[in-house]
Design goal:
By secondary structure, the chain is an alpha/beta fold. Helix content is 47%, strand content 18%. The chain has 15 helices and twelve strands. Strands 3-2-1-4-5-6-10 form a seven-stranded parallel β-sheet, sandwiched between helices. Strands 7-9-11 form a three-stranded mixed β-sheet.
């Protein structure tokens, strides 16, 4: 049995980032609570981790505040990831509420997953607005009791797993990458495994080591044509980049059920790109270099064939 006295609470636990954190914490024999919406999905996903005795499931949603309030008691740290884009204020409302309750119940450290777009755009754009206002609420809570409360913010760039959404179908069936930006438009990319592993390190390091640090997270800056070239190299067949019309882009995104504000934001950064900023210094946190898109495609090649 582990002698570690930490108890860590993880929201978004069955998502790609959250599930990686759960596995990392259980591997370190840390008492961990996964806050999940779907109990059966969590049981299937964490079958082996549940057998260790270190993992507890709590079934709840963003709306079941009473469940969260009771479950968070006795925990020392909270990993706070909220997947809510139904309205601009959802992120700040949920994170503000959960953060307040957590700190009042004695949580010492919160890791908040935000976005690289906060650094890029401030409040301009719905994604950065939602994340920035959520950050502001959490910083205010921390400063109400600065000696006993700590906040760490992760601001990742575009997820490499985004290629498993719309891109995967175009690559499989027409050997194309599609977007409304020019071939030379570039974004900052990050492997979500690096996000999970970074969070595990922070959650298990002394709290004061990472206190009040904002970690921007970007492994590579890649243009659309560079991404197509990497897919070509790994998959062994020609993959080309094709620039969509704005009309086709908006229609495609709307078919996924996205709001006008979210689609407009995505079109803006697809056209304008992102600043050419990477964060190789995160290797000092992870203990290894950040993952590349080429390595990520190799791990997920079967999805594109």
């Amino acid at each position: 049995m582990s002698s570690n006295k930490e108890r860590i609470f993880v929201t978004g636990a069955t998502g790609n980032i959250g599930s990686g954190i759960i596995r990392g914490l259980i591997k370190k024999e840390i008492q961990t609570t996964a806050y999940v919406r779907n109990e059966q999905k969590a049981k299937n996903l964490f079958e082996n981790q549940l057998k260790t005795g270190y993992l507890t499931l709590v079934i709840g949603t963003y709306e079941t505040i009473d469940v969260f309030s009771k479950a968070i008691q006795g925990h020392t740290r909270l990993f706070l990831l909220v997947n809510a884009i139904n309205k601009p204020t959802s992120q700040s409302e949920i994170k503000g509420t959960f953060g307040k309750i957590a700190f009042e119940q004695g949580v010492r450290q919160i890791i908040n997953v935000s976005s690289f777009f906060v650094t890029e755009n401030g409040r301009k754009g719905i994604i950065s607005y939602a994340q920035m206002t959520a950050e502001e609420k959490l910083w205010t809570l921390v400063e109400q009791n600065p000696e006993k409360r700590s906040l760490v913010v992760l601001r990742p760039g575009a997820f490499m797993t985004n290629h498993l959404m719309g891109d995967v179908h175009h690559i499989k069936h027409s050997n194309k990458l599609l977007s409304c930006g020019s071939p030379s438009t570039a974004l900052v990319w990050i492997d979500i495994e690096d996000i999970s592993d970074c969070a595990v390190v922070i959650l298990t390091d002394p709290i004061e080591k990472h206190d009040r640090i904002v970690y921007e997270m970007g492994a590579e800056v890649l243009s659309n044509e560079e991404r197509a070239a990497i897919f070509t190299k790994v998959l062994g067949r020609p993959i080309v980049y094709e620039q969509q019309s704005l009309d086709d882009f908006f229609k495609q995104q709307a078919s996924f059920g996205m709001s006008h504000a979210f689609i407009y934001d995505r079109a803006t950064y697809a056209i304008n790109g992102m600043k050419k900023t990477t964060t190789p210094q995160l290797a000092f946190v992870l203990g290894r270099p950040l993952g590349t898109l080429e390595a990520w495609i190799k791990k997920n090649a079967q999805a594109f064939t």
